[in-house]
C-alpha cells in the first residue's frame, strides 16, 4: 500500500505541475515556453496512471483522495496560502477514502 500511495502522490504532482504551468502563462503572464514542460508533465501523469495494478475506475477513485491532499499541500507550500482546519479535515477524510479503496483491491 505504501508503494501505491507514493505512486499516487507522484502522479498527482505530475498533474498539478502540468496544469499549474499553463495557468502561470495564462493568468500571470509567464512565458509560453512553460507549455513544453507542462505537456511533458501531463504526459508523465497519464503514464503514471497506467502503472497502477487495479481497474482504471478504482485507480481514478482512489487517486482522487491523494490528489486532494497533494493539491492542498501545493497550495500551502508553493502558493503560500494558509490552510484552514476544514482544509486539513477534508484532506484527511479524502486520504482515508483512498486507503479504504486500495485496501479492497484484489478482494472484489
TrEMBL record:
The chain crosses the membrane at residues 6-26, 33-54, 60-78, 85-105. It is found in: Cell membrane. GO terms for cellular component: plasma membrane. It is a multi-pass membrane protein. SUPFAM superfamilies: Multidrug resistance efflux transporter EmrE. Keywords: Cell membrane, Membrane, Transmembrane, Transmembrane helix. It comes from the Bacteria. Pfam families: UPF0060 (PF02694). Belongs to the UPF0060 family. This is Uncharacterized protein.
